Amino acid sequence: MDRGIPTEEVLAEMRRAETPMYYLVGTPRGRLSRMEQSFLSLPWSRVRDSVEAKLVEQDGEVYILARSGQRRAKEHGIRRRRLKKLVKRLHELRQQKLTRDQA
Known about the structure:
single chain, 103 residues, three-stranded antiparallel beta sheet
């Protein structure tokens, strides 16, 4: 299947199709936040050695919450690099000798 972003129209068409169609779609974090209570009560299931998931069926859709140590490390690294850039820029700003009018 393509890696494009389906619109709600396309998803509705897929749901109405006579032949079942399955498509993995990323869910906005806001929607997952609203479903947080549904996920909290469920145990994590091991999908692979490094991946765990929880499944919730709601309104004819199956929502999957997945986690992995590798993904967590990647996101931590992304945040760390962003923080380093911000701290570096703050040090640069601190070293500037600007008068009030220049600032």
